[in-house]
Amino acid sequence: MTCKGCERHNQMMELDIDSAIDEQLSMELNHASEELRDQRLAVCNGCPALSEHTCRHCGCFVRFRASLQEKRCPLGKW
Length: 78
Fold this sequence. Notes:
Pfam families: DUF6171
InterPro entries: DUF6171 (IPR046169)
Number of helices: 3
């Protein structure tokens, strides 16, 4: 169990990460469809290389990589 201060800090970090990803995605072209993005994220969620928001293999934010049509999984899973 985390303390309330740590819990709030973690929630703020998640909001900051989501905001940064959304901002970067707004500048990108060729987004994957929602269906494709969700399929990719489902694969990532079952992968041992996932560390919260990032891929341990390449260091990317998985939601960002999964949202772009031309991107691929560094482990070849999608």
